[in-house]
Amino acid sequence: MRSALYYPHTQIQSESLLKTSLLLWDKVEFIVPYEGYKPSYPNAAVSEAVELIGVQRCPTEEEKRDVHLKLEEFVARELPPPFYYRSLPGQSEKYEIYPQKLLYKTWDMLAKAQLTSSPLANSDYPATDATGLTIMSMLADCCAGETRSRITDRGAAYATITNLLVDENQPMQAAYDAVVPLTLKTIDLSNISLKQLIRFRKREEEPAGHELRGLRHRYSERVEKHVEAARSVKTKADYAELQRCFTDDMSADLADLRSELGLAGRDLAFSKDMVVSVLTGIAAYAAMAFGLHLGIPTALTMAGTPVAVGGVLGSLNKFRGARKATLQKHPMAYIYELEHS
Question: Is the pLDDT of residue 101 over 80?
Answer without folding.
Answer: yes
